[in-house]
């Protein structure tokens, strides 16, 4: 389980889209640690989007929800490598969304740390996004049973293999002293990032590069494309 002495907020986001209709959705979950207490879990329907558009909407809407709660420091996790790396300024993407949206939002925070995780470590946001797409309307999770489910699937096991944990790229915004970019991340985030890199290296050694793929869900042909897909 995660270390009990870590205190802070984590925003997880996700996005999905139907390839046939370009209808999509995104989900945003704010969790407070320790305990993975769900502060907010909201889903939003989207129109005329690709999966990358939906992921970016999830990031933006999540940061808006965080800023509305006067939270100044946030760790953001998502399973879209493209969105994480674009927001970090590591790659350039051409999306039909203003590239000024994220830089404008991040000015509201003292610090933002962005971490890419595998989808199996983003199950809570994935569940919220999938259900939102099925409902076709915005909603907020308030049912105690569903909130408990989100808390349970959000918990990330600690590493046990003894391998050293290297720091993933981070982004720290205004009012942070020079050099903070290389400061260690909280233990939970180091765990997720290290596991992600380890799994990715293993998969890369065993498999040829994959093209776009689709996941079939109960509500139709929902597209959750591979992270190597060309950006539209």
What can you see in these coordinates?
Residues 158-232 are annotated as: Disordered. Residues 158-174, 216-232 have a biased composition (Basic and acidic residues). One of its GO terms (molecular function) is nucleic acid binding. The structure is a single chain. This protein has 232 residues and is α/β, with parallel strands linked by helices. It has a single domain, classed as Ribonuclease H-like superfamily/Ribonuclease H (Nucleotidyltransferase, domain 5), CATH 3.30.420.10. It has helices at 51-68, 81-87, 101-106, 123-135, 144-154, 187-206; strands at residues 8-18, 24-33, 37-46, 73-78, 111-116, 139-140, 222-223. Strands 1, 2, 3, 4, 5, 6 and 7 form a 7-stranded mixed β-sheet that branches. The longest helix is centred in the C-terminal third of the chain and has 20 residues, at 187-206. The relative contact order is 0.19.
């Amino acid at each position: 389980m995660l270390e009990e002495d870590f205190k802070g907020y984590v925003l997880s986001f996700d996005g999905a889209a139907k390839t046939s209709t370009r209808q999509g959705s995104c989900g945003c979950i704010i969790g407070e640690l320790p305990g993975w207490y769900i502060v907010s879990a909201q889903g939003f329907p989207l129109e005329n989007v690709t999966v990358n558009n939906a992921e970016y909407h999830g990031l933006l809407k999540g940061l808006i929800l965080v800023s509305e709660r006067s939270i100044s420091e946030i760790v953001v996790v998502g399973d879209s490598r493209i969105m994480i790396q674009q927001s970090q300024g590591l790659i350039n993407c051409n999306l039909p969304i203003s590239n000024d949206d994220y830089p404008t939002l991040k000015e509201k925070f003292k610090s933002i740390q962005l971490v890419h995780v595998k989808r199996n470590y983003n199950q809570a946001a994935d569940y919220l996004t999938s259900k939102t797409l099925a409902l076709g309307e915005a909603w907020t999770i308030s049912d105690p049973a569903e909130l408990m489910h989100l808390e349970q699937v959000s918990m990330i096991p600690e590493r046990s293999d003894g391998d050293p944990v290297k720091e993933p790229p981070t982004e720290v915004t205004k009012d942070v002293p020079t050099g903070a970019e290389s400061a260690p991340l909280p233990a939970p985030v180091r765990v997720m990032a290290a596991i992600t890199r380890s799994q990715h290296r293993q998969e890369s050694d065993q498999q040829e590069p994959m093209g776009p793929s689709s996941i079939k869900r109960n509500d139709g042909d929902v597209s959750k494309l591979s992270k190597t897909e060309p950006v539209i």
